[in-house]
Design a protein that fits this description.
The longest helix is centred in the first third of the chain and has 14 residues, at about 25-40. The protein has helices spanning about 5-15, 25-40, 65-70, 80-90, 110-115, 140, 170-180, 190-200, 205-215, 225, 330-335, and strands at about 45, 55-65, 95-100, 120, 125, 150, 160, 180-190, 200, 230-245, 255-260, 270-275, 275-285, 285-290, 295-300, 305, 315-320. About 45% of the residues are buried. The strands form four sheets. It has an eight-stranded antiparallel β-sheet. Strands 3-2-8-6-7 form a five-stranded mixed β-sheet. A two-stranded parallel ribbon has the order 1-4. The chain folds into two domains: about 5-205, CV3147-like fold (3-Layer(aba) Sandwich), CATH 3.40.1610; about 220-340, CV3147-like, CATH 2.40.390. The chain is an alpha+beta fold. It has eleven helices and 17 strands.
């Protein structure tokens, strides 16, 4: 079960798995979801193989900008409208939902959708963190089509799309922008048996546990190990710069933070480079970590989460690397989520 008293941990864990990219889980979303759970009861959290194999499952999440989501909050029925529209298109009832991913708002919104639809939530997801593109999931890597998909906006907009994989981003982006910058999405229709085979298991539970670890004062000196990752460096922010995008490029600027390691003997220079999320860590000119692994920054003291855009000169920070699901480190996984997918020419 996902209960109301777990939402704060789920929110914090979701922010962690946003990989420093500014996709903080909205406190408004958490309070809205809490009210739904207090009124309707906890959401059943199940393993996919506990369901009938032919149960229709759809992935639910938010498409678009987390920042614009804060400016144009949901009216309440966007996710229900998206799932119902997909049911109508498929002429079948949905029997369970699974998170699109568990980073940022998408860690919490599927819980709200499951409560509104009175459906179980599968303890799994399609990324294990967050990536910017709707098609960057392990569902897609295993051959599950993202479409047909349904998108619903807070102004009553509703669309059901059936497009080739290569056109998902190009077709959905204008609709999302027209909706004010975000839309509820229901996509990747598949059977429960398929979810059991392809999804990243127990990621909802893992996200709750990650949030609990970050809030646990007794874990302060051992956060990286408790999260299953590695502490890469502890240091002080020397500078925060931003590269201008290449002339004619559609890519945004890359915020770059430079950190000096505190160890008097090592004194290494560390660069964090981001494109939506922190994508690469360079130590003394050599790549030390990169996407698809999740790179996170904690402010010290207190081990509070920091977005790369909120880092300031003089801050003491700890840089953690959390390993991605093994599926992302296969050749086709790296094509979708490796450094090159973020515009970095790295091996």
């Amino acid at each position: 079960m996902v209960t109301a008293d777990q939402l704060d941990d789920l929110m914090l864990g979701g922010t962690l798995y946003a990989s420093g990219g500014g996709r903080r889980t909205s406190a408004t979303v958490v309070e809205w979801t809490r009210e739904l759970l207090l009124d309707g009861g906890p959401v059943p959290l199940v393993d996919a193989d506990a369901l009938a194999p032919d149960t229709l499952v759809v992935a639910v999440g938010m498409a678009g900008s987390a920042t614009l989501f804060e400016e144009l909050l949901p009216t309440g029925d966007e996710f229900v409208a998206a799932v119902r529209a997909l049911e109508q298109r498929l002429r079948r009832d949905v029997g369970a939902i699974v998170p699109l991913n568990t980073g940022g708002n998408n860690a919490v919104l599927p819980v709200a959708a499951a409560r509104q639809l009175d459906l179980p939530l599968i303890d799994a997801d399609g990324i294990g963190r967050t990536f910017s593109l709707l098609e960057s999931t392990v569902y897609r890597l295993e051959g599950v089509s993202p479409t047909p998909m349904a998108l619903s906006g807070s102004g009553g907009e509703l669309a059901v799309l059936d497009v080739p994989l290569s056109r998902v981003e190009a077709v959905t982006r204008p609709f999302v922008l027209a909706c004010g910058g975000w839309a509820a999405v229901a996509m990747y229709p598949m059977s429960a048996a398929t979810v059991a085979d392809v999804a990243i298991p127990h990621s909802v539970t893992r996200t709750v546990e990650a949030g609990r670890t970050l809030r646990d004062a007794s874990a302060r000196g051992d956060v990286a190990r408790r999260l299953g990752g590695t502490r890469l460096i502890t240091g002080v922010v020397l500078a925060v710069t931003e590269h201008e995008p290449t002339l004619g490029s559609a890519q945004p600027a890359r915020p770059v933070s430079v950190v000096l390691e505190e160890d008097r003997d090592l004194r290494r220079i560390v660069r964090l480079e981001a494109l939506n999320e922190i994508a690469v860590v360079v130590v003394d000119g050599l790549v030390a970590a990169s996407t698809p692994d999740c790179i996170c920054v904690l402010g010290l003291p207190g081990h509070y989460l920091l977005d790369i855009e909120r880092m300031e000169v003089g801050m003491r920070v700890e840089v953690l690397v959390l390993p991605a699901a093994p599926r992302w480190h296969t050749p086709d996984g790296l094509v979708v989520a490796g450094p090159a997918a973020f515009g970095f020419d790295l091996p």
